[in-house]
Amino acid sequence: MLFSFELQNEVAKKDVFQPFAEKVRDHKDFVSHWAALKEIRVEYFGGKDFVSFMRNHSELNDILESDRSLEPEDIANILLKKKLLVRCDRVVKSVRPGKKKLSAFPSHLEIYDYQVFSEDDAFFAWTFVKRRTLWQTLLSFFWPFLTLAICFFLYPHQVKLLIFYPCAGVLLLILCVLLLRAMVFCAIWILLGCCVWFFPNILAEEATLKELFQFWPQKDDGKQPEWKVRIFYEIVAVVVVLLLRRYHASDEAATARFANLYSHSNASLNGRQLYQF
């Protein structure tokens, strides 16, 4: 009988902390970020942010009923024990070149060995699936049909072009920037032996939006390449340019014959028009 009462009490606590965790996660003032954890995208937050949030929103403690007087650290530890949270650590623990300190919110995480709450450089990811609202469910259901309608039959041809050309233009711009920055990097690396990226890598997940629009590159502290390696790639580049010039250059004789044929055809067409007139 006593064991049954304790079991029911434990289930009741789980039911209390589950809605509490959902309420905290959905709160508009709660600061959270997204990262990759073992090929899974998770939503996580910092230990300091959780403590600060709980102290500024003490009214959420009423959801815990009999445990409303617990400290934020104790609440977080209970969430960890109930598997509603998992403590994580950053994968990259060294400072990137050109940076003075580690990123405040890393994009790659790994599970920490000791599942205990801490405020000092500790990150915690939610383990439960976030509930969707009704409009999100309806939008996710109708969005594929709307996409098919735009691409195929319902929308007029002008609307299709209005959607297609901006998307194709943005994609072409990204590809051109990637190609241009690679060509500039190769040219400067071969000639001067310096690694210069005039734009941050667009494909890098750790690059922020501010870094993407930073034109001037960061100072390169890497090891300079050997002159033998540079000479080898210089020879390879010259050979590639000569091959392209040899096999993809326009044939001057064929161009002259085409121009002569085009001029004769225009002359004969003008003569016929004058004759009919």
Topology:
Layout: H1 2-26, E1 33-37, E2 40-46, H2 47-56, H3 72-81, E3 85-90, E4 108-111, E5 123-126, H4 134-151, H5 157-192, H6 209-212, H7 227-248, H8 252-276
Question: If you had to describe this structure to a student in words, what would you say it looks like?
Answer:
With 277 residues, this protein is α+β, with helices and mostly antiparallel strands. Helix content is 54%, strand content 9%. A 5-stranded mixed β-barrel has the order 1-2-5-3-4. The longest helix is centred in the middle third of the chain and has 36 residues, at 157-192. It is flat and about 95 Å long. The N and C termini lie far apart (115 Å).
Instruction: Give me the strand/helix succession.
Output: HEEHHEEEHHHHH
Total strands: the figure is: 5
Low-confidence region ranges: 1-8
Name the beta content range: 5-15%
Biggest sheet statistics? 5 strands, mixed, barrel
Average predicted local confidence, pLDDT: 76
**Rg, nearest Å:** 32 Å
**Structural classification:** alpha+beta
Strand order in space, largest sheet: 1-2-5-3-4
Helix content: 40-55%
Dominant shape: flat
Measured between the Cα atoms of the first and last residue, the distance is: 115 Å
